[in-house]
């Protein structure tokens, strides 16, 4: 008979949500064990934010999340806010700064956040089992049986915090969705979010020449709008504006991109027509948007000899409208290989919003990215991990 260890709470996944949940439960005097197949905890925290971890956002609120039920996240986000997490960061003496749009980053390294969480787990008496495969999870007479590569466990309560499918190379698996389905939970359609776009085959050759060009844009798709930077790459479009809008995009949808959101291009061209009538409209536009972009658009129109003096107001407005409402249908996205998050997940209708507990199986909780709650870029996904993790840890 293999050894059977006993724990009050078993947390599957030593990521952001799993670790903070373990801390909360451990502080309440429960015996807590966290299991992960990775060799180190918090691997996604380590690589996040370019190694500095964008750990929350000053402006985080329910409006920053996508879910089949947008109201589900409200309770957890209110119970443990970005300011509560910032207080912990401050109490640890971790230096941080606001980069832009309320996004808070560590001054030094994302490891500061991992060290804070592992230190808190140690202080709360949490047992951390790394390099451990989860083989099987079953409901038992009392609680749950969890079979792992390092032995079998009996746990009164089980918390699934195994994250999403993004970046399999970093240890992401669909285990959380499988466990949910096995216990009778609905899992909404999952797909890659916060992910770069790839060119459609008819654009790839000519547009990849713009690789490296960055421009501030207003990107729109399916009712969402983001005013941030866009980056042309060899393979397609990236940068914060594209990552954000990718979460709202579905195969075949059209993107509408204002390439000069702060300017009235028609007005600028008409003024230039008065002062420099012999000038090319594309020279003027190349002083407003990046020159290489203007040159590329010019090459696409096939009318490089045109002079401003020859242009009617209607012709000017047509060119301006093309840049303010540049439209394209991406070929696809880079998928889970580079996506920051997985959209969709464990259906929130079958979870208690205050405790993250299953409405079907008492004692079973789902937290973090595995749940159908996905944040915008900018620290919101970690805030959801903190808020949902604390909600479960305090009520377990
Ligand atoms: P997370 O993925 O963190 O943890 C899941 C854990 O479960 C992992 O440790 C994994 O090893 C383990 N696991 C999975 N399957 C298992 C199995 N079968 N057996 C055992 N263990 C298993 N967000 C943000 O707010 N600010 C940012 O700066 C960034 N930056 C960023 C960069 C990159 C490159 C990525 C990919 C993602 C981000 N994110 C982000 C998103 C953020 O990392 C993500 O939303 C959270 O890490 C989710 O936390 P979870 O704890 O739910 O999952």
Summarize the structure in words.
Pfam families: HI0933_like, HI0933_like_1st. Keywords: FAD, Flavoprotein. It comes from Hoeflea phototrophica (strain DSM 17068 / NCIMB 14078 / DFL-43). With 396 residues, the protein is of the alpha+beta class. The protein is built from 13 helices and 21 strands. The strands form 5 sheets. Strands 1, 2, 7, 8, 9, 10 and 20 form a 7-stranded mixed sheet that branches. Strand 14 (224-232) and strand 15 form a beta hairpin. The chain starts with a strand and ends with a helix. It binds dihydroflavine-adenine dinucleotide. Residues 13-18, 36-38, 43-44, 47-49, 53-54, 134, 161-163, 166-167, 171-173, 175, 340-341, 368-369, 379-382, 385 line the site of dihydroflavine-adenine dinucleotide.
Short recap of the structure:
InterPro entries: BaiN-like, BaiN-like_dom_sf, FAD/NAD-bd_sf, RsdA/BaiN/AoA(So)-like_dom, RsdA/BaiN/AoA(So)_Rossmann. Helices cover 31% and strands 23% of the residues.
């Amino acid at each position: 008979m293999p050894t059977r260890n006993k724990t009050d709470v078993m947390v599957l996944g030593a990521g952001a949500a799993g670790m903070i949940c373990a801390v909360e439960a451990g502080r309440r005097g429960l015996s807590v064990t966290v299991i992960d197949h990775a060799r180190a905890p918090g691997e996604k925290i380590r690589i996040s934010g370019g190694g500095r971890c964008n750990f929350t956002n000053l402006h985080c609120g329910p409006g920053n999340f996508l879910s089949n039920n947008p109201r589900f996240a409200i309770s957890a986000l209110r119970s443990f806010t970005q300011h509560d997490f910032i207080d912990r960061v401050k109490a640890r003496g971790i230096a941080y700064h606001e980069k832009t749009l309320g996004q808070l980053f560590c001054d030094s390294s994302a490891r500061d956040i991992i060290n804070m969480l592992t230190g808190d787990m140690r202080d709360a008496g949490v047992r951390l089992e790394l390099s451990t495969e989860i083989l099987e999870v079953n409901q038992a007479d009392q609680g749950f049986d969890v079979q792992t590569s390092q032995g079998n466990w009996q746990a009164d309560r089980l918390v699934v915090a195994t994250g999403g499918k993004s970046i399999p190379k970093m240890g992401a698996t669909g285990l959380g969705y499988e466990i949910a389905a096995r216990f009778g939970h609905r899992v909404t359609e999952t797909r890659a979010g916060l992910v770069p776009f790839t060119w459609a085959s008819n654009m790839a050759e000519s547009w990849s020449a713009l690789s490296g060009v960055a421009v501030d844009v207003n990107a729109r798709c399916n009712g969402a709008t983001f005013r941030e930077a866009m980056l042309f790459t060899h393979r397609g479009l990236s940068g914060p504006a594209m990552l954000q809008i990718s979460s709202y995009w579905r195969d075949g949808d059209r993107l509408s991109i204002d390439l000069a959101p702060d300017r009235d291009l028609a007005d600028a061209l008409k003024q230039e027509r008065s002062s420099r009538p012999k000038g090319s409209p594309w020279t003027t536009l190349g002083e407003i948007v990046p020159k290489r972009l203007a040159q590329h658009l010019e090459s696409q129109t096939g009318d490089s000899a045109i002079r401003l003096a020859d242009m009617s107001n209607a012709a000017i407005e047509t060119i301006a409208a093309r840049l303010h409402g540049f439209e394209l249908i991406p070929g696809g996205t880079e998928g889970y290989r580079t996506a920051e998050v997985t959209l969709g997940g464990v259906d929130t209708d079958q979870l208690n919003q205050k405790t993250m507990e299953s409405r079907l199986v008492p004692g079973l909780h789902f937290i973090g990215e595995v749940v159908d709650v996905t944040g915008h870029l900018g620290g919101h996904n970690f805030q959801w991990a903190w808020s949902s993790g604390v909600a479960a840890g305090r009520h377990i």
